[in-house]
Amino acid sequence: MSPTSANRPATRLATRLAFLAAGFSLSCWAPLVPYARARLGVDDATLGLLLLCLGIGSVAAMPATAPLSARHGTRPVILGGGLGMALALPALATIDSLAGMAVALLVFGASLGTLDVAMNVHAVEVEADADRPLMSGFHGLFSVGGFCGSGGMTLLLATGVAPWAAAWLSAALVLVLLALAAPRLLRTRPMGAAAEGERAPLFVRPRGIVILLGILALITFLTEGALLDWGALLLTDHRSVAPTQAGLGYTLFSLAMTTGRLTGDRLVAALGGRRVMLWGGVATIAGLGVVLLSPWTPLAFAGFLLIGAGAANLVPVLFSATGRQRVMPPALAVAGMTAIGYAGMLGGPALIGFIARGWGLPAAFTLLTAMMLLVPLSAGPVGKIDAPVNDA
Question: Does the entry feature the keyword Transmembrane, yes or no (predicted)?
Fold first, then answer.
């Protein structure tokens, strides 16, 4: 393929389909969790340990994905990860043993981790050849997939479709998305691939600016995870919001984030990565402050909107910067940065719970707000990497 082959509508479409399939597959699992708990007959503590297997599988698979992409290209790795997620879904809807469910979640998580890294490496190359921001739009399709997956699976289950049948229907749709993407995905080796005859190491330790980018991703993912797992409790316990309405906070956050990402490419092109990091971080911090301090419940809900709008394009800018830095080969850097970021998603809910147990949930969110200060403070170094974008 020619050097400009990544800069084609078909290739950009394939990248969007990969992100859509990943978001859809992951979110299909959420409505199945209550059915899995009932089928296995476990309590919440045991279920929590089982769910940890998904995160462990993801983080464990990520470091090995970059060498696989370097040796074979991202196309087979994307398709393999997507196929693994699709085939694991029906297993998650039918397995009735603890050991079997643990293995299925590990496979599902490992497939997710593989797909996540490979599609972001692919997206970095596509964006680099296009020479204009595309990453926010790609991640926006992941969010759209999340809405469609959870909503579609919930609708199927609500209309009386058996969990196993709903899982197979969802898996079939994922396979269709992968089939549409397959012929359009890049067949060349991604940037940073090993030279001919040179074998990429199985694991590369992140270094230099990649460590900072990973920490910033960790903080952002931790914020998203905290709102998902603890946002409703913060509203019910400290804002006297009725449990039936507490889910509105995260819904508003998700709506703002999805809208922000779908329009984010134009925003990044107009403002540059440095300003997006700066003002996005400031908006996220302000939103957290509103949620924590506002005595008026409607204003607290507005804080969730502000957090979603501010955080929407932080991770896409970080992925773009990871692809442009020159300290590490981009494929290996994306894998390392993603693994660090997902560590926040994996361990974050437990950390928030530990702090909340000792000092209260508002104290945990106050610490999270303080950690978010690193994002706008790091806008300068991240913006310098983001050279192709107007960052004056």
Answer: yes
